[in-house]
Amino acid sequence: MKKSTLIGAMMATSVLAGAAAAQDVTLTIESWRNDDLAIWQNKIIPAFEAAHPGIKLNFTPSAPAEYNAVLNSKLDAGSAGDIITCRPFDASLALYEAGHLADISDLDGMANFSPVAKSGWSTDDASVQFCVPMASVIHGFIYNKDAFAELGIEAPATEEEFFAALDTIKEDGSYIPMAMGTNDQWEAATMGYNNIGPNYWKGEEGRLALLAGDQSLTDEGWVAPYRQLARWGEYLGDGFEAQTYPDSQNIFTLGRAAIYPAGSWEISGFNNLVDFEMGAFYPPVQNAGDTCYISDHTDIGIGMNAATDNPEAAATFLNWVGSSEFATIFANALPGFFPLSDAPVTLEDPLAQEFISWRGECESSIRSTYQILSRGTPNLENDTWNASVAVIKGEESPEDAGARLQKGLASWYEPQQ
């Protein structure tokens, strides 16, 4: 029997929960999030076990840098846990294709997730899902509310307002307008190009068109974000070229910069470091009234070891991960890592609530280079890093950057040839 059929039959059985409880089983969970251990032990596991007597959870994380190697070794040896925490896209797709992750497309809980949410853990044709989406991170801008109040600035909604605010901050001189460096390269692409870009290429519409070969990186929607980045250099402060990611974090949290191009993953750390009130705004649109788009990027999922001896109990747990109860626990324990399900969630952290509220105002997409387009050589993700840096530093024009990246992509990706 195919795994998808097997799981569908399990889910259709009304006595599943009772059967799982009667087995009195322990599910072992593999994960790279060893920093989450206390959250699992103190909050997630007690909540699940209280609602599902007879199923115990054993959370056994590895160090993040070692996780892939450790997990693959365990899977090959047949000693991996019942539940596998999934990185997005190709690493988990490879596990599914090797027969290590079960097809969970028919799991009831999967109905709670949109195609965008499921994209990080689906086959290329989206016909099979092999991990339940757990959390995403949302891109935007975090700002110092005290600095904005001092300078009489409102959170900008349009590009014109954005650059007017930057000019006001620069002219006053009390703060660096934006804290971002180019030394480590990835920030310029992740918190620059893929932060503002969806407003230009219209989120999933453009991303999927690029995948299909219907758009190219020389089209206006893909070059225009570089034109905005080319204007950023004058607002990043002296020496931004040598400024590292930790440098930028310190500059903002110490109150020396007014705006931080950001991801929501910063919230927990920043909350413990700042002595001012923080706010956030989504990437400003080109013109008032335009639809806004945000990068709501798939970050972490969780799936079933295809070789588990406890598929019914594992399915019960994975369904619970798609529930409002799990989403609320996880999101409040880790502010800035947002549930991907449609289940209602109330967040206690005001900055996290601001980020997640954008889902109701804007269209969600994911980072443009993460699905399929970075499998070849040259690697489009890495090329986007250095192109973003080169444009910000004035070493490459937006048009030349687009042409170079398009040439590299077309050299190996058939739909672009």
Detailed description of the structure:
It is a single chain. The chain has 417 residues and is an alpha/beta fold. The chain has two domains: 189 residues, Periplasmic binding protein-like II (D-Maltodextrin-Binding Protein, domain 2), CATH 3.40.190.10; 209 residues, D-Maltodextrin-Binding Protein, domain 2 (3-Layer(aba) Sandwich), CATH 3.40.190. Helices cover 44% and strands 14% of the residues. It is built from 19 helices and nine strands. Strands 1, 2, 3, 4, 5, 6, 7, 8 and 9 form a nine-stranded mixed sheet that branches. Helix 12 crosses helix 19.
- What is the molecular shape? globular
The assigned CATH architecture of the largest domain is 3-Layer(aba) Sandwich
Give the SSE order as H and E letters: HHEHEHEHHEHHEHHHHHEHEEHHHEHH
Number of domains: 2
Please mark out the parts with pLDDT under 50 across 5 or more consecutive residues, or reply none: 1-6, 8-22
Coarse structural class: alpha/beta
Number of helices: 19
Reading off the top of the CATH hierarchy, the class of the largest domain is best stated as Alpha Beta
State mean pLDDT (0 to 100 scale).
93
The whole-angstrom Rg is 22 Å
CATH fold-level name of the largest domain: D-Maltodextrin-Binding Protein, domain 2
Distance between the termini: 40 Å
CATH superfamily of the largest domain: Periplasmic binding protein-like II
